[in-house]
Amino acid sequence: MEAVRSTVSVVIPTRFRPEALRKCLLSLLGQTQRKRLTDVMVVDDGSSPATRACVSGLEKEFAKTVPECRLTYLAQDSLGANAARNLGIRESRGSIVALMDDDAVAPETWLEELAGGLERAGVDAAGGAIRLRVEGPLIGKHREEVKSLFAEVLEPARTDDGRVVPVTCNMAARRNVFDRAMFDETVRPPVEEIDWLVRARAASVFLPDAWLWHEKSPEELRLAAALRLAWKRGSETGWWSRVRLRRPLSRRLREAGMSAWTVLFSVGHVARRRCVGGLLTAAGEAARLLAVLGLINRGVRSPRSWR
Predict the structure, then answer these.
(1) I need a surface site. Which of 162, 186, 220, 257 has the fewest CB within 10 A?
(2) What are phi and psi for residue 72, nearest 5 degrees?
């Protein structure tokens, strides 16, 4: 007798990217196990008419292809991606909640591998691999320098004690885990997942076969935009270590020393190899160094750059 499989809700935060969102939603219609879907929650952080129209335009297709699934549009006023995720989680119904970004495209086996892998592992949460797909060349000469900045995940990220950290672009968790902790709406990338994992006391696994595409536009790959992103992510990481984790000064000095060494190495790499990709690493680590020592704060992030 075939075991009863858990129902799955997919939560997608979005902001001002209806074309990308449409591709994301269409990829869900092609899933081999789409009948497991009980709802797809699109949470619009900014209440865009174009986003609402995108979802409305696919309602009939969802009703025809996956009649068991409810495609739902929710809106909020520029509260951030984590607030959008929390709203979607609260309003969804599945016993498993899967999270993906609006610029992600899932191959047909994604749901099968992610939800099935979570069930087989018997843990609280699971994260899948993320493959970067871009229009045009990446910045610099070496993919390793920039892949983490643009959320390409081919190997599991881990906490200091070795626990696997799922990434919100491609993860799933059992609903009862969110009873222990929701996402902190004041914490921003790239530490939102580890912050949640620690507070939820969750055990997680990495599922390389539960992969999806993460698509980036030419605008996101411009050097100036990427430098701003690297600085924001670095300052957030340093702030989180200093303020949220309350790490002692001795530990923060060690972190600052490691960041300083990385900055020097990256700048040298730029000079030696004429590779501007090293500038992104240098910018991120410089911001982290200053923030972990309290010399800068993480600053204000504009709503349109909430990722």
Answers:
(1) 162
(2) -125, 135
User: What is the token pair recorded at 282?
Assistant: 């240098």
Q: Is the pLDDT of residue 303 over 90?
A: no
Task: Bin 279: left if φ > 0, else alpha if -120 < ψ < 50, else beta.
Answer: alpha
CA distances for 99 relative to 13, 41, 127, angstroms: 9, 10, 10
Find the range with the poorest average confidence among 6-10, 77-81, 234-238. 77-81
User: What pairing do the DSSP bridges indicate for beta strands 204-216 and 104-105?
Assistant: antiparallel
Spatial separation of the C-alpha atoms in residues 10 and 21, rounded to whole Å? 13
**CA atoms within a 13 Å half-sphere pointing along the CA-CB vector of 37:** 27
The phi, psi pair for 269, rounded to 5°, reads -65, -40
The model's pTM: 0.94
The mean per-residue pLDDT over the stretch 132-158 comes to 86
pLDDT (average), residues 174-200: 95
pLDDT above 90 coverage of the chain, percent: 82
Q: Which residues contact 296 (CB under 8 A, 6 or more apart)?
A: 235, 287, 290
3-state secondary structure at position 11: strand
Q: 199: Cβ–Cβ under 8 A, 6 or more apart, which residues?
A: 180, 181, 184
